[in-house]
Each structure stands twice: as C-alpha cells, then as structure tokens.
Amino acid sequence: MAKLRVLFIVQGEGRGHMTQALALASMLRRAGHSVCKTVVSKGGDSEVPSYFEEGLQSPVMQVPSGRFFVNKETRSVDWGRTILSNSFKWAQFNRSFAVLSELLQSERPDVIVNFYEPLAGLFMLRERLETPMVAVAHQFMFLHPEYRFPPGQDVQKLSTISFTRLTGLGAERRLALSLYEAKPLPDKKIVVMPPLLRDEFFELPKDVSEPFFLVYLFHHSLSKDVIDWHKRNPKFRLHCFWNNDDAEEVTHYSDTLTFHRLHGQRFLDMMARCQGIVTTSGFESMAEAMYLGKPLMLNPLHQHFEQHCNGLDGTSVGAAVQTNDFNLDHLVKFVPEYNFDTTKLRAWIGKAETMFVRELEQVASKKQSPKRRRRSIIDAALSLTSDKPPTLPGWLTK
After folding, report:
1. Confidence (pTM)
2. Are 343 and 209 found together in one domain?
3. CA distance 70 to 396
C-alpha cells in the first residue's frame, strides 16, 4: 500500500492517550507510514512532556480544549467546576477548530487518528471532511454489550457513555482497546483491539523483583496520603511519580520515600523491577503491570467512573486489589496472594501491531464524499444517548 500520512489528535489530560500515540506512531513507521503532525489538547497549564515529543518523531502543537478539575479535599473530580469552566471556552474552541482546518489544508493527511479528544468529534460534526477519522480509546469498550460496569452510578455511566460517543463522532472506525478479546460490532463501527504499549516496554527484563513499591499519582495532592502511610511504615521503600510541575526532577522526602516528576523511561524501568504497583486505575499502567505480572493496588479517583470501570476489569481477573484510600497495607497483603496468569494477555497484546496497521490502511483506502460523511456524522450526533440509528427527515439529508 502507498505510504500514508497520518494526523494525530491527542487528549492531553493525563498521560495515557499520549502513551497510546507513541506506540501507534512506532507501528506506523515500521509499516512504512508516517505521522505528519500531532495536535495535543491543552486544558490546563501543563506542557507536553519532553519524552512525548522525542518519541513521536513528528512536529507537535497544542490547542486549547476542555479541562478536568480535581477537588483537593475529597480527591474527586469536581464536576461543577469542570462544567462551569469549560462552558465559557467556546471562543478558544473555535480557535482550535481553525487550527485543525489549517492543518488539514497544509498537511493533507490520508487519515486522522483521534485519541479520545472531544474537540475532534465536534470538529467532524462541524466540518464536511473527505479525510476519514479513526477514534482510539479503551472507553469505546463501554459501548460493547459484553462489557461489565460496576454497580450503581447510573448518572455517571450515562454521562461517560455520552461523552465517549461525542469523541467518536464522525469516526469511520472506533478502536476499543481492551485487556481481553471480544467480538467486533460492525453496526457501531467498533473493533475490539489490544492495548497500545510503548516499544521500550517490550525491552524490559521480566521476572525481576526488588524490594520497593512503585506509585503513580494522578494528581500531586494525593501525595499527602502516601506520606501519611509512609510515616507509619517507614521500612517500605516507595518510588512515586507525580505531575507536580513545581517540584524538582527528583525529590527525596526520606531515605525510603522518593518522588519523581513524570518520566516515561524511568517509570518503565522501575515498573520492571518493583514488587508491586499502586495506581489510580489508568488503563495503560494496568495493562503494562499485568503483562509484567506485577501485583496491582488500584485506587480509582473518587467519582471518576472510568477509573472504577478499569478497577473492576483488573480485580475480576485476579490481577489487582481495589481500594478507596491510599492505605498500602492492602498491597502488602495482596502481594503473596497474587496468582494472575499472563499467558493470554501477552498473546493478545502480541497481535496489536498487525491489527492496528491493518485497520488504518483499510480506513484510509475508503474516503467518502462530503455529502455521505455529513449524513453519517448527523446520525452519530443524534444517537449520543441511544444505540439505535435515528430516522432522519428527508430535508435534513439533502
């Protein structure tokens, strides 16, 4: 197949979607394709980490988008502040749409890959594009009938599913990343895919265990809980990674507690050597730890429905223990009981490169006319809260 030019649009909130973009970019390069440019959404003040720009090997630019706020007291997503703040940003969003339009004209990509960024879905709804889009996220598994949700939280479930459909608006294919295989859903344009893991990950040594725990903090305010536990248990060595832009690269709190600013390779190296991992249920960190056979303590962010879903995935297969606090006593107890079999997961992840390259090549070869694409986008928009395709009046489809 002719060499493809691919445009990435990546949600910048958190680091999971950036990890996926790095992995897919490498797969595309090995297949003879290239990422012509990458757009990363910017909801807060954080900049694109240096390891992302270096590993992607394509120009990166940031555009304004929405932002999630965390309540420092409850450690939960502050939905009121999140909704209120983002509702006043339409002028910024319009500037982001203009940037995307200019990029499509200047770069002429063959296909767009959207890593769960809502701006891309809204952009596809607003514009009539001939360039097809593929949407990639583990959240698309939420639209699969075989997926199991945690009980209760019906409001959060509905809002999360609606947001997921929004990010996939106009996509020719929705690639649902999953820890296990499941059937494709052609009517929903969903294909279940293995997790996207970085190249460096597969170079890590296996079956190594050193006496320390690795901790990933979604927000640096969570460090207070870790410090409180550490004071009660100073004999356990902890290495914590946080998104604290005001901190030094490495902060030695004590002889057995160290904080690190986010660094992809350093985190992977420590993951391979640790004896257990604490994380707030990020999908990629879970997949990596499970592949390496590392016991997990999952502490989903309060009121963060997606993380509770990830936690259920991990505990249901025996790879993790889930808690509602940062009491590492749970992990200390779980480590000797851990017996997760990595065989099936490693075989599933081994299929990833062939599957992803194939899906993108197939989509890129099927460009649609603007008129036909307009109808498919309208269908998707009207079905944000329903799995049934709507019946449109004739005047709307002319």
Report:
1. 0.82
2. yes
3. 41
Is there a contact between 238 and 258 (Cβ–Cβ < 8 Å)?
yes
Contact predicate 299/278, CB 8 Å: yes
Backbone angles phi, psi at 333, to 5 degrees: -75, -35
65 and 144 together in one domain? yes
pLDDT, tens digit, for every residue of 344-381? 999 999 999 999 999 999 999 876 545 545 555 555 54
User: Which residues span the domain enclosing 242?
Assistant: 200-349
The span from the CA of 113 to the CA of 344, in Å, is 28
Same domain, 382 and 284: no
Which residue has tokens 């989509």? Answer: 363
Average pLDDT, the chain: 84
Per-residue pLDDT reduced to its tens digit, 153-207: 788 888 888 889 988 999 999 999 999 999 999 999 999 999 999 898 999 988 8
Looking at residue 159, its amino acid is S
- Angle made by CA atoms 135, 136, 142, in degrees to the nearest 5: 100
What tokens does 378 get?
A: 């309208």
What is the count of structural domains for the chain? 2
Q: Tell me the three state secondary structure of residue 241.
A: strand
Identify the CA nearest to 110 among candidates 127, 136, 133: 133
177 vs 193: CA distance, rounded Å: 5
* Same-domain pairing of 16 and 159: yes
Phi, psi for residue 312 in degrees, rounded to 5? -65, -40
Instruction: Clarify whether residues 176 and 217 are in a common domain.
Output: no
Residues 131, 21 within the same domain? yes
Asked if residue 378 and residue 342 are part of one domain, the reply reads: no
Task: Provide the Cα torsion 259, 263, 269, 272; round to 10°.
Answer: 80
What DSSP element (H or E) covers 288?
helix 283-292
Residue 278 CA to residue 328 CA, distance in Å, equals 8
Residue 49 is given by DSSP the state P
Q: Do 35 and 10 contact (CB within 8 A), yes or no?
A: no
Chain center to CA of 282? 8
Tokens of 97: 């749409």
Please tell me whether residue 131 adopts helix, strand or coil conformation.
coil
